Amino acid sequence: MKKFCLSLLLFVICGFAKNFAQTQRMVADKIIAKVGDKIILKSDIDNAIIDYKRQAADVQLPPNPECSFLEGQLVQKLLVLQAQKDSLIITDDEIDALLDNRIRYFINEYGSQEMLEQIAGKTVYQLKEDLRQPFIERQLADKMQSKILENVKITPTEVKAFYEKIPKDSLPFFESQLEIAQIVIYPKANKDIQTYITNQLNDLRQQVLSGKKRFADLAKIYSQDPGSKDNGGQYSINRNDKIWDPVFLAAAFKLKEGEISPVIQTKFGLHIIQMVSRAGDDAVIRHILIIPSVTNSEINDAKQKLDSVRSTIIAGNINFNEAVQKYSEDDATKYNAGRFSSPVDGSTSVTIDQLDKDIVPKLKDMKVGDITQPLSYTDDRGKTAVRIVYLVHQTQPHRENLKDDYDRVAQQSLGEKKQQVLETWFKQHVSDFYIDIDPGYKACKSLDFWFTAESTASK
């Protein structure tokens, strides 16, 4: 069971589309394992592997994936049974929220609710009911694992001991890492530009309403939203999703199917929205976004404002974190004290190649604690913005060590300790449950623990 108690639950989660997958492919069924009164089918494993490949195409499967995914199911079933013994509760609201998220994922993947239902051969309601029990088991297993591990902590002494066990020639080498924060202001376009774009969008809206043009075709030509332009401006949205601009959501859900909104303004620019289809809080919409351009005069106004903010920070009248909260208009960093986050692990330590190209040239002459003069740039949505950048911390290229990498080593040490606690828990509790595994899987070395438990229980 070594190394799989924590990680295999993640593999199992990826297979929770199996009931949906079974509507698209025929898989010969056979009971290959039992834990208590819970059964594991061969199709559970086969479909989980297929779905994992589809959803995580860039992640390599483990060797002998049938063995790994079966172990993941055995782990989950035992945790579910223990959760039921301990009377852990999953509310209907929790499950309904998870089901809604999964259905939205499918709708987004297949383009519309109608296409999803056509491919699945079932209604959305039927799909949710098919997925309900697997999602209940997933949540019970997660809650049981959290209960087992809730009191596991790590001390500095344990971190040091963990680090000293690592062979010195195995320590990873890290390139220079930086912690960088920013305060961003978006220059405001003048009213003449906004009026011009509003008229342009109204003209596009009229072309669709008159039947001269299709909304999707116009979106491909005119929309400046890189996330939906090539898909005819289409998105699947939910009224309760926090990722959407609230003004955009409110305007969308006022529409009836086929209706097109008047021009609306959000923090992204000016839009018109078409309601394609709607089912309660879920909807498929199309939109056309046009971003108002700004002049040098407006950019300079934003620079002057940020220059004043910078001077206030340097004078010590406000610290950078407070200034971020007060002045920054960038949602991606504002709520993280202005810090950039690594796309790899979400930490605030980033490498040069993870930064946007506009920042990199400015860093070579900066020392820790420096704040740049206001800089104009184009963000990832194509909007012109102005920012000041603060170099919070920087490491030199180095081998992993406790001085520069304590948090990273501590997380690794904590992960190992949790692994050991889980393994101990399984050894103590596995004999409490009936286990039966198809002998055809005896070649799976990762299942040795479970076959031993099976033979012990049978005696």
Poorly predicted sequence stretches spanning 5 or more consecutive residues = 2-19, 21-27
Q: Which CATH architecture of the largest domain?
A: Orthogonal Bundle
Q: How much of the polypeptide forms β-strand, as a percent range?
A: 15-25%
Number of strands: 13
Radius of gyration: 27 Å
Q: Please report the number of helical segments.
A: 17
Which structural class do the helices and strands define? alpha+beta
Distance between the termini: 21 Å
- In the residues, how many domains can be counted? 3
Mean pLDDT: 87
* Main pleated-sheet profile: 4 strands, antiparallel
**SSE order:** HHEEHHHHHHEEHHEHEEEHHHEHEEEHEH
CATH topology (fold) name of the largest domain? Triger factor/SurA peptide-binding fold
Instruction: Bin the helical content.
Output: 40-55%
**Strand order across the biggest sheet?**
9-4-11-10
CATH class of the largest domain: Mainly Alpha
Envelope shape: flat
